[in-house]
User: Fold this.
Amino acid sequence: MPWIRKPVDKKLVRAARKARAAEEIAHLDYLRAVQRAVMKMNQTQLAEELGVSQSSVSQLLRSAKRQPPVASGYFSADPDEAIKRFVAGVVTRKELVEELRRWNSRGADTRAALDKACVQRIISERLAKMVGEEARR
Assistant:
């Protein structure tokens, strides 16, 4: 029996995108929180409080060190993160625009971040369409 392509529910796709962005932002926030916490306590203490192993805390810290820091006066480490925070519903459109203006004034390529966000959406839509077409053959 051939696979039947159903109409795309844009509302559900937006909800899934929002959830994915929220998950990525939550992970970044978690890494940064762990990094701040070990400035006040040792890794073993934090591990006990979080209910994880000390080696897990160590791995989280290694991941946190690979992330760019958030500059003073900003809510994101770069324009890409600012856009993800907007998609996740963490910041308003107005806050996003203000943040991107600040990044732009620092010489960051905000256009590339916006283009990347749009391209990712277009690619995912095209891939879904291609999969549907392939399944109909």
Summary: DSSP finds six helices and no strands in the chain. The mean pLDDT is 84.
